Task: structure prediction
Amino acid sequence: MDPSGLKRLDQRIAGCRACPRLVGWREEVARVKRAAFADWTYWGGRCRGSGRRMPGC
Result:
C-alpha cells in the first residue's frame, strides 16, 4: 500500500462513527481514566498506525 493509501485508511478508521455505542465508549474512556491508570499520562488523542515510520501514541 502506498503512503497516501495508508493515510486515508488511518483517517477512515479513526474517524469512523458507524457504531454510536462504540463511539460513546471510546470518547468516555478518553475523558475519564480507568482507576488502574489514574496516575498515567495517556490517551485522548489518536495513536499512530503501524505503517508509519515512528509508530507510537
